[in-house]
Amino acid sequence: MKKCVYLLSSIVPLLLVSCHKDDDEYQPVDPFANTKAAFGDNIDPDNLYNYAGQTVPGYITKDNSGANPITDKGATLGRVLFYDVNLSSDNTVSCASCHKQEHAFSDTDVASTGVNGTTARHTMRLINTRFSAETHFFWDERAVSLEQQTTMPVRNHGEMGFSGENGDQSFDDLIVKLGNIGYYKELFTWVYGTEEITEEKIQKALAQFVRSIQSFDSKYDAGRAVAGNDGPPFANFTQQENQGKDLFLRPPVFNQNGQRINGGVGCAGCHRIPEFDIDPAAKNNGLIATLRGIGTDMGNTRAPSLRNLVKADGTLNGPLMHTGQFATLEDAIAHYNVITADGNTNIDPRLIPGGNGQKLNMTQQEVSALVAFLKTLDGANVYTDVKWGNPFK
């Protein structure tokens, strides 16, 4: 008598049969048994969400994926890793604890809570991180790629606690921990062909998931698709929104004292349309405060895309800047309206025309118009799309 075990799986292209001599029963072995037990219908290896083939408007040309393009399998594994509290030393914190889908993958708290304290800077939104010419990440650009960035919070003592210092376990301990979890044995084999877990594999999967988070269903995108370029008024915009767009696009004209005497306010010089990504050459934006209010923090030169700053009801997706000190768009605009450059050795030269801190002298009408335009950059789908949601729920 033979007992044959059938392995039916998308992991391998062939039907594998293991036969034993005790009986004639045929017992199929499910290679995703642990995955199904953990996630139910939230993850179906045979019916994956579309991460790799999402529609991207033709006018979006920047892409920092490099040698790690998005795949449906890789992003699915990345989604699990992103939401898994097992990546923290005490099983309480995941990437999603600070980057919350309902807030455009940011945090409404000024400082996010980790396993051993709070973050040193406000949590940056993760919208459209793929569509940027800037390949460095974090406010101070200390990560040279998104891949490197993904595990740096895991290795941080305060955030996720696998630093290998201050009594923490090491990242190698995390790899052993994940290797003992059944669904990771299955998912890493499915994605990489072997259940071996490495930091590089974790980084690639997380980066693919984060890059998949995109937002192009805004009022701005609807207008841009019809207009063909950003210059003319958009037919679907109000007069106020078009005025704000013009102010955002046109550079200011300054006198010798740094006072604006004509032109727009020049936001697009650093926040470049249509991706609204930060210019890689940008330096400090004039804000050198720290989140703790002690000392200075002049090394911050990166910013997230300006898309999805606000929700449909106009509320912010979290306070603004690395300090989280601005609670409204008007507050942020007021900062740029009058720039003080004293003591800032890293300030962007575009903010100090003629060596003086810029004074845009914006009227209330101009401020309101610019706010109205910035609100057109909000899309709706990113807040609710299941493929970016928590697979453990």
From TrEMBL:
Matches recorded under InterPro entries? Cyt_c-like_dom, Cyt_c-like_dom_sf, Cytochrome_c_Peroxidase/MauG, Di-haem_cyt_c_peroxidsae
Where it sits in the cell: the answer is: Cell envelope
Keyword Heme (UniProt)? yes
User: What highest taxon heads this organism's lineage?
Assistant: Bacteria
Q: Which residues form the Cytochrome c domain?
A: 73-182, 239-378
| Keyword list, A-Z | Heme, Iron, Metal-binding, Oxidoreductase, Peroxidase, Signal
Recall the GO molecular function terms of this protein's record. cytochrome-c peroxidase activity; electron transfer activity; heme binding; metal ion binding
Q: Name one GO cellular component term.
A: cell envelope
What name goes with this protein?
A: Cytochrome-c peroxidase
Organism classification: Bacteria, Pseudomonadati, Bacteroidota, Flavobacteriia, Flavobacteriales
